[in-house]
Structures are given as C-alpha cells and as structure tokens.
Design a protein that fits this description.
This protein folds into 2 domains: about 90 residues; about 170 residues, Intergrase catalytic core (hpI Integrase, Chain A, Orthogonal Bundle), CATH 1.10.443.10. The protein has a 3-stranded antiparallel β-sheet. Helix content is about 55%, strand content about 5%. Helix 1 crosses helix 4, helix 3 packs antiparallel against helix 4 and helix 4 packs antiparallel against helix 5. The chain contains 14 helices and 3 strands. By secondary structure, it is mainly α.
C-alpha cells in the first residue's frame, strides 16, 4: 500500500476552498524553487530553516504580499509538522521553522462598509424584483447578516437553515469547523422571500437561474459568481473595489460598533483566536473618543474631578 505524502495528508484535512487556495500557493513555491514537477509533492516536508528563509525571500522578490508570504510559510510549517508526526523528519526541524518571523501586514486592510453604504446597497438591490434579484438580496442578507465567507455561502444546503429558530449551520467553515450562525429578523425576511420562489426542495440554498427564469435546484452557485456579483453591485453604487470578504469585515465591525463584546464577536465570526477578530476591527478614532469621554473613577454619588 502506498503511503500518502505529508502534503497530501495536510491538504486532505482542509475545507475544499482552503485546499484549492493553499495547494495553488504551495505549487507556486515549487515553481519558484524550480523543484521537479514529479517530485515536488515530497519536497515540502523536507524544507529546513535555510531553505525556508530562501523561499521567503524568493516570494517577496516575486511580488507576493506579506499576507501571502505568511500563509505560504504557515502551510509549509504545517506540512513539516505532519512529516514529524509520520516520523519522516525530526522535531528539531519544525522548531527551527517556528523561529522564522512573520512579515508585517497592514492593520487596516479591506474596506468595511458603514451603515449608510449598506442601506444604499440594499436599496439598489431592491430595484430588481426578478427571481435573480430576489436571490441576490437573500445572498447579500446572509453575507452581511451572518458574516459568512463566500465559500461558506455557496456550500449552504436547505437543511442547514432553520427559519423557525433564526439560525443556519455552517457545516465546514475554515479549518473544517462546524458552527451555528444566528440571523437577524431582516435577514430572515429576505431568505423567506427567496424560498417562496425557490420552494423547499432539498439541495443547495442558492442556485443558478437560467434565461427562462427557471431555478436549477440541483446545482449551487460558485464562489466566482458571488465574487463578481459583489464587485459589480458595489461598482454600480459607487463604492469602488468591494469584495465579499469586505462584507464579512462589515459584519464584524458593525457588531463591535454596537458594543458587542470581542469574545462574542469572535464566536459569531467563527474565529478560533481572538487576535484574528482584532484584525477585522475597523472602528475609527471616534469609538476611542467616546470611550474616553465615559471614563470615570468616581462613585455614583461623587463629583467627577
């Protein structure tokens, strides 16, 4: 029996969308390093400290962003970790890789929308009362009302949704983790309107619609479809380059603006580490000014000095 490589085992435990992304990035590394195509799958777990440093330099010189470089280095460490568990390489190799510093990334990446912009977006979507228009409103409602990633949105099945309990279940989020996402009433209303057209036949929650306005229940939409839809709608209302992930940033930022505590937001977003949630915090200085204005060390019956 042929033993799977550490790379194959690592990729196999990722969610499908993450698997494609990480695999593509790692094979870019293999291409840059000029590893033979028929051997590169078995090269990643052999990466030591010196080679990892070289890979990092090469990625930067080839124009990769700091975020992409860090993701590639993290993936390589994880492959090496699998190699350690399989007894193929020493644990010391993994320890040395952990000493490589991450590239600094901008704290203010992305373009979260404010409440006015979100209202503009839904006002624009409401102008289209076609089947596709109703579907699109429901999709945007879930992206902004539950903060789903686009890969999570397209994977939703009708059985993942419970309108009576106002929640949906993300079966395989990032890292193959399952979570429950609770939905606001306005979001439920958009989904209900879509289901009146779609019907309650089992299958993917969101489906393609053909030129004859027939819904193909047997198929789901693609992540590319969601990406293009968000970009096109944002462009039409003058919001510039907005991506589906910016809607996730909007969701997280809005929760924090409404004084939901950070750990609750972390759980709602499906983040394992609270430091990840902090990166999404796009509140401006007004929040800090308001917090400072409320700071007091006096008792209720004492005069604030």
């Amino acid at each position: 029996m042929t033993t799977a490589s550490p790379l194959a085992l690592y990729l196999g435990r990722l969610a499908p969308n993450s698997r494609r992304s990480i695999k593509s990035q790692l094979y870019k590394v293999a291409d840059i390093m000029e590893w033979p195509l028929d051997k590169c799958e078995h090269m990643f777990h052999l990466v030591d400290y010196q080679m990892a440093c070289q890979i990092k330099v090469e990625l930067i010189q080839h124009g990769s962003s700091a975020k992409s470089v860090n993701r590639a280095m993290s993936a390589i460490r994880n492959v090496v970790k699998v190699g350690v568990l399989m007894g193929l390489v020493s644990e010391n190799q993994l320890i040395q890789l952990s000493a490589i510093k991450l590239e600094k990334t901008s704290q203010h990446q992305g373009n979260p929308l404010n409440a006015t912009q979100v209202n503009m977006l839904f006002a624009y979507l409401a102008k289209d009362s076609s089947i596709i228009g109703i579907r699109n409103q429901a999709m945007f409602a879930i992206l902004l009302g539950a903060g789903l990633r686009r890969s999570e949105l397209v994977a939703l099945k009708l059985t993942d949704l419970s309108l009576s309990e106002s929640h949906l279940v993300v079966q395989k989020g990032k890292g193959n983790k399952r979570r429950t996402a609770f939905l606001p009433k306005w979001c439920i209303a958009h989904i209900h309107t879509w289901l009146l057209l779609r019907d309650y036949e089992s299958g993917y929650l969101f489906n393609p619609v053909n030129k004859s306005n027939r819904i193909n229940i047997k198929c789901g939409i693609t992540t590319e479809c969601v990406y293009l839809l968000v970009r096109n709608v944002a462009k039409h209302i003058g919001l510039g380059n907005v991506s589906p992930h910016d809607l996730r940033r909007t969701y997280i930022t809005r929760l924090l603006e409404q004084n939901i505590d950070l750990n609750t937001v972390r759980m709602m977003a499906g983040h394992e580490d609270i430091s990840t949630t902090v990166v999404y915090d796009k509140r401006d200085n007004k929040v800090m000014q308001q917090a400072a204005s409320k700071l007091s060390y006096a008792n209720a019956d004492e005069l604030v000095l």
